[in-house]
Specification:
single chain; 632 residues; alpha/beta; TIM Barrel; Jelly Rolls; nine-stranded antiparallel β-sheet; eight-stranded parallel beta barrel; 12 helices; 30% strand
Length: 632
């Protein structure tokens, strides 16, 4: 093999935002992840209306001790903390003889992770109707009840909400910690926003980020941070309560829900099936981007859903409200402290503007016409007031196959500055499509590759991604930004894989794809030097399959042994031993070759009926490494 580089040649120049990260609250990436809060359901807003498995006490267990008695329940009534934080904990304490009643929080995953000698900031809003006040004791202990720190004692006074807090310092390290709040005496004591933060957050920020996770992102030196989604952005809100859905209260991610004092922020049941506290909100996103020297790139809902939900709102007033919200967002980021939203930013601790330059409208909308009509409305309003802002459009759900060419054409015709493309494919696709952008119009919109990943169960995903990134760099005059997705995954709560960084409650680790991203991001060149390659062709040339793969190939016995599919040249393309099972469906879980449908239907990652999976002549395989898996 020979690679010839022309050092005097002038290829594309790489930009400061060439590579970045995409943070979405998927895989429990925020609460119990990047957001450093250690208590789950701190504001008692987990409700059955969001998810039938939830109760106001999800994450909490009522407890009593030393002969104490009482009752713990969650209530939404006129005594609530505020209109957006409605449900609170009501402890009816009945311990006249010195005992206590209370609640224990089990944190996320195996428990609250605690480090010996480190400081933890506890805070709570409380009120009591006990005339002499209610003594509270805050105790850190392990799952077996062994104390881990000296208790914190405070006395709640008066029947109006007030904040109480203090520091707890564990004497031992544990990843199965628990926090118990004990109320002594008799009377009704109400608690809300029960919170525990490590003092040691990323950059020491209050309401900050978990240090190891934020540091792993910082170590990439990303040029931008796209947030907050993804499918998370668009879905929800405009359709109201849907009793049939499992998480009917899920609303589109609306930035105004996520700013201001944390106790006044809304919570949300999100698209991925769990609750968000919004403690990690727009201020924190902007702050994080600034802290790691990255450009903030927010995505606002386009009022057309994607991600399998093909709906567009016809509600003009709602659309106008979202357009206004987007203008207000720009004011929040960049406006003077004398403006309404710039003033809020200053109140939150950042008088200096964040310097927002780009806003993306929407994510993977399935209805191109409706999406684009809305996009143009957003763009026109932003251009009128903030002509300097780049408004990023997108190219539909999965652009790998050119399904949404029409939307691309619209973007081009409308002179859109930048289009967000997404695709997830197998490694062979990434190898074979290295030249994808060579043919892109140099005068058309620039590309923001906002989501991509090689999806395969094997380790060579990252190699395929790295090879593909050389194609992105070669075309850096067109592909101005690229981010792998998703960024984070909680090992016990995963909706999507593969992911870049994995974590549990106290540890985190990067995948090989993380290392690949780090390699590229930490070594962004200035300019591509043209090069040529000579050598024998690889094994990626299409090889038609004859005989095909179908039921008759597998046989009818309940044990499938030595299944083989051969190419025309007699090479074994596929062979496997399925140990038993009357498989009535075949799921191609590891489509490590590229499968292109010639004249039949084929869904790469969905389970498909065996007789529609693959038939003779319907596919070509482009390498010799196909794997199918039978499932019942
Ligand atoms: O990255 C995971 C999901 O993939 C995103 O939410 C969505 O935009 C895409 O379909």
């Amino acid at each position: 093999y020979t690679i010839t580089v022309n050092p005097a040649g002038r290829g594309a120049a790489l930009g400061p935002q060439q590579y970045g990260v995409f943070f979405e609250d998927i895989n429990y990436a925020a609460d119990g992840g990047l957001y450093a809060e250690l208590l789950r359901n701190r504001s008692f807003e987990f409700l059955p209306v969001d998810n039938r498995a939830f109760t106001g006490l999800t994450g909490w267990t009522p407890v009593a001790g030393d002969g104490g008695a009482g009752n713990a329940s969650t209530v939404d009534d006129d005594a609530r903390l505020n209109e957006r934080n409605r449900t609170y904990l009501k402890l009816s304490a009945n311990s006249p003889a010195g005992g206590w009643t209370g609640v224990t929080n089990a944190g996320f995953d195996t428990g609250v992770p605690l480090k010996a000698g480190a400081a933890y900031d506890f805070s709570v809003f409380a009120r009591t109707d006990a005339v002499a006040g209610t003594p509270l004791e805050v105790v850190l202990h392990d799952a077996a009840g062994n104390p881990l720190a000296a208790p914190l004692r405070r006395t709640v006074q008066g029947d109006g909400w007030a904040a109480y807090g203090g520091t707890l310092t564990p004497s031992a390290t544990s990843d199965v910690g628990r926090l118990t709040v004990r109320a002594f005496g008799t009377g009704t004591v109400r608690l809300d926003m029960v919170s525990l933060f490590p003092r040691d957050t990323f950059k020491g920020r209050r309401n900050g980020l978990r240090k190891d996770l934020a540091q792993k992102v910082a170590d990439l030196h990303p040029g931008f941070v796209r947030f907050p989604g993804g499918c998370l952005v668009n879905t929800g809100s405009m359709y109201g309560y849907d009793a049939a859905a499992n998480y009917p209260r899920a609303r589109a991610f609306q930035w105004k829900d996520t700013v201001g004092p944390v106790e006044s922020r809304a919570t949300n049941a999100n698209f991925w099936g769990y609750n968000q506290s919004y403690g990690l909100g727009y201020y924190e996103y902007f702050q994080f981007a600034e802290d790691i020297g990255a450009m903030a790139l927010p995505v606002v809902p386009a009022l057309v859903t994607g991600c399998g939900q093909n709906r567009a709102t016809g509600d003009e007033a709602l659309l106008r409200r979202h357009i206004q919200d987007t203008l207000d967002l720009i004011e929040f980021a960049n406006g003077p402290v004398t403006s309404t939203w710039g003033g809020l930013r200053a109140d939150m601790g950042h008088p200096k503007p964040f310097g927002l330059t780009h806003v993306a409208v929407g994510n993977e909308e399935n209805l191109p016409n409706e999406y684009f009509a809305n996009f143009l409305r957003f763009r026109a309003a932003i251009a009128q007031r903030y002509p300097e802002i780049v408004v990023v459009s997108n190219s539909g759900p999965d652009d790998a196959g050119g399904t949404f060419d029409d939307l691309w054409a619209k973007n081009k015709a409308a002179g859109v500055q930048m289009v967000d493309e997404h695709y997830y494919n197998n490694p062979a696709w990434f190898l074979q499509n290295n030249r994808r952008y060579d043919a892109y119009d140099r005068n058309g919109p620039k590309v923001f590759l906002g989501e991509y990943a090689s999806r395969d169960a094997k380790w060579f995903n990252s190699l395929a991604e790295g090879a593909y990134m050389t194609g992105l760099e070669r075309n850096a005059d067109v592909v101005r930004m690229a981010s792998y997705a998703p960024l984070f995954a909680n090992i016990d709560n995963t909706q999507w894989r593969p992911d870049l960084i994995w974590f549990d409650n106290d540890e985190s680790w990067g995948t090989t794809s993380y290392q690949m991203q780090k390699l590229f991001m930490n070594n962004v060149g200035d300019r591509v030097l043209p090069s040529t390659f000579t050598g024998p062709p690889g094994s990626t040339d299409p090889k038609p399959i004859t005989g095909g793969i179908g039921l008759s190939t597998w046989g009818t016995a309940s044990t499938y042994d030595d299944v083989k599919v051969t190419g025309t040249d007699g090479t074994v393309l596929f062979s496997d031993d399925f140990n038993g099972g009357n498989a009535d469906r075949w799921t191609p879980v590891e489509p490590r070759g590229t499968w292109s449908v010639v004249n039949g239907a084929y869904a790469q990652s969905d389970a498909v009926a065996e007789d529609t999976l693959v038939k003779a002549g319907n596919i070509t395989a482009t390498d010799y490494d196909l794997t199918l898996k039978a499932t019942k």
